Amino acid sequence: MKFMAVKLKNITDNLKQKPMLLSGIGCLLLFCIAFFAVYFVRVVHSPQWISQIKGTMVLFGILLALSVFVVIAKNFSKKNTALFMTCLIFISGVFFAFINPPNQVPDEPSHFLRSYAMAMGDFHYDQQQQWPNDVNLLMDYFPSAYRNGHPAKKGNTILTCYENYHNALENGETGKGFGIIIFQTIPYIPQAIGIFIARLFGADALICYWAARIANMLFYSLCCYFALSWAKRFKVIMYTLMIMPITVFMAASCSNDSMLLGLMFLMFGAVLSNNFDKYKAIAFATSFAVLCTSKISYIVFAPLIFVISNDDWKCKIKKWQYALMAFAAFVVLYYGTSLSVELLSNYGEIPRTMSDTNPAEQLKFILSNPLRYVVVFLDTLRNTSFFLFSGGLFGWIDVDIRIISYFTPIIVMINTLKNAHRLERRDFSKVCMFFVTSLLTYAVVFTGMYLSWTPVTLPQVIGLQMRYLLPAFMGLLLVLAYWAMGYMKKPENETKGETSAIYTSFVFNIIAVSMLFMAYYLETKVIVYVS
Known about the structure:
The chain is mainly alpha-helical. It is built from 20 helices and 2 strands. A hairpin with a 4-residue loop joins β1 (393-394) and β2 (399-400). It is globular, with a radius of gyration of 25 Å. The model is unreliable at 526-531 (pLDDT under 50).
């Protein structure tokens, strides 16, 4: 066995001395992969629009372009690993942005329409908001939750929606009007800018949709870059969460979660840095204010300020003074947003989405039966497996790619263990506080959904999704890394272990987006077994 390992090492060392031969072997391997992948798709799904030759050449070109980028980027990855990681995150997001059809992210239609109104210069909250006809047609021909009861079950694919949309545009068809109920502005600024630029060049609604997603992905990637640059010892753990398929799926969409996830990682990066200066203080306070104004559940991360050591604290004011200032920024932004809604909204009384829910009665029920609610909470955790195995649940929870769900926690934990040796004993307070915020996130999210979405006295919390709990995973992974710190030996080549973690997450993400492509664009065959 040892002889074979030495022999293989000698062969690889010789190939490294012959770059042209190595490149040729690599191209041949990529071509074989592309050929077999297309052949597999044609046999299993029989798509009429994919021929063997053209499909192979297109896929080979994509794989070759990705490989060339990785080889080129590898040269500067050692000099700026954070930038290299960010590039991979952005590339993954671009694939998700274009492959995932419009309106297939939870609440995405409403978020896109809000940002489109802002791009038109209308910042009012108008119940009678009018949209251009191409926007109405886009909403008509791309129904939400496409895989759940729409033509996908009749043998069609999402390509039919694209075809019908373009035909409606050419034929001058008139679309229906749509109303939205959104009372926020800040989380939609990046995508509104993307739509505004696209409209300057005369883009239709579909192009604007893609522009909005790319703009959101740019903002998310920018936040990731600064977070990775600041928290150098924790960057592999954060990168693994940043590029997790479900995270990129949300970031590369028109959902406001794109901005919120980016600001969340920016806040984490500032706290985990070894130099909390005035710039990081501004970033943390701004992120905290925007996050809590948009989703109050993020308020559980306020105590993170106090885990910054005195050696790392570079601000002139004391921590408690800064904490008060950060909280004051949130209060000002929150009430400023509320005031803008009062001044710019013409909505009357808005009926509850769930008619059989009653938050006040549900709260009374919890307070009168606290032990019963604890049981409901724990039982929901049990039934959902802590939402650790939902990483492949895309769309409006109507696209379940189970292999991605199963392998997501495995990939994340392996990469976390590879970074465990970078933690130090002095990180104990940070790990503990992040773990506390994780537990609080579970408690706040579950309780919030029990109050607002669950019928009174129902013994199960409904309406939960994994994306709501993404903020909790950082603390869980830090606990895992700190526990493994004493068992994981420092590798002889730290760069090699870090690089393997970076590529593993990236490749896993590409596999996930490929399977998402198959779910939407390839016809599902019905297999009949005859005994």
